[in-house]
Amino acid sequence: MPLTVDDFDYDLPPRLIAQAPLPERGASRLLVVGDDGALADRRFGDLPEYIHSGDLLVFNDTRVLHARLFGVKESGGAVEVLLERPLGAHEALAQVRASRSPKAGTRLRLADAFDVTVLGRAGEFFHLRFPENEEVVALVERHGKLPLPPYIQRAAAADDEGRYQTVYAREPGSVAAPTAGLHFEQGMLETLSARGARLAWLTLNVGAGTFQPVRVHELADHRMHRERYTIPPATVDAVAATHAAGGRVVAVGTTSMRALEAAARSGELKAGEAETDIFIVPGFRFRVVDALVTNFHLPRSTLLMLVSAFAGRETIRRAYAHAIAREYRFFSYGDAMFLTRHDEENPDHAL
Fold it and tell me: How far is CA 102 from the centre of its chain?
């Protein structure tokens, strides 16, 4: 039977959707899913107990842009622009909300500070040309707002400026945070290193497409949005050394996993910069990642499909039912899970 979105649905009480971060990063809960599927309710500060000496944790060091901009069309109508990703120094793809979709050639005045021109459509996104006197990233960082996810029912506040970034965020380019990393404090990174774990880095710039729903019934008909990633040679070397020594590669977040597995689709992990539209569903052959730190994901989402591929669909169903019954906090500002890979003997499907 082909996989459908209905295979990845669950009922979530709205009260469990975290609307704000906890006062301290490390105060979140951690649901540990054992190799045998056993569930353990822990605190995120307990994570080092599950990381072995010789393991390698791979983090996504992307930084969230101030990618939400408000403005007006030439007609005076209001518009909201959410950057998807820059295309070079002076062009970008973006979501544009307006009473009527702007046509090619339309000029938009954003933040009452600069004009952009609509060049056309690229699927669900608009292709915009920004002023040539300053690069896109610099403009949006100065004039834009921090873009919180659509399920957070409030505007970004001052606290979000720090809390919706990881403590190791360095490379600007995302419009959504790699949220599993939000739990890590500098002290935990030092603790992990002191216990013999190694830390490595990559960059995957998360686009606005990460929040777009799956609009088809059968997963074989779904096409993922594209995201750009960079994997340094040092990270490739660290992965090879870890596996050669019998250690585990632990992806911190689904973005780190997507980058690593995309760069290894030929069978060998490769360093460099590329784009990926990898779609990980049950039956996918994992080549790099052995364990995963992740948050809880939306029903019917591609990220729920990814973790189901990694840990097994039945295991994830039980884990999510347990988390709901125990009132874990869900999504970006919510609690975390620690998963180990479970390779199904009879995979359902691979895309």
Answer: 29
Residue scoring higher pLDDT (1 or 136): 136
Tokens of 82: 């959410």
Cα 130 from Cα 67, distance rounded (Å): 13
pTM as predicted: 0.94
Give 228-278 pLDDT, tens digit per residue. 999 999 999 999 999 999 999 999 999 999 999 999 999 999 999 999 999
Task: Tell me the C-alpha distance between 244 and 191, whole Å.
Answer: 24
Nearest CA among 179, 164, 187 for reference residue 293: 179
Do residues 203 and 215 make contact, with C-beta atoms less than 8 angstroms apart?
no
Name the one residue in this structure whose structure tokens are 């390779």: 343
CA-CA-CA-CA torsion for 211, 332, 174, 339, nearest 10 degrees?
A: -90
Contact 199, 168 (CB under 8 A): no
* Cα(12)–Cα(3) distance, integer angstroms: 21
Amino acid at 149: P
Quickly name the fold that domain 68-143 has.
Thrombin, subunit H (2.40.10)
Instruction: Specify the range with the lowest mean pLDDT, choosing from 201-215, 242-256, 284-298, 312-326.
Output: 201-215
Boundaries of every domain in the chain: 5-64+160-340, 68-143
Percent of the chain with pLDDT over 90: 89
Domain 5-64+160-340 - what CATH class?
alpha beta
CA-to-CA distance for 12 and 327, rounded, in angstroms? 10
56-60/249-252 β-pairing: parallel
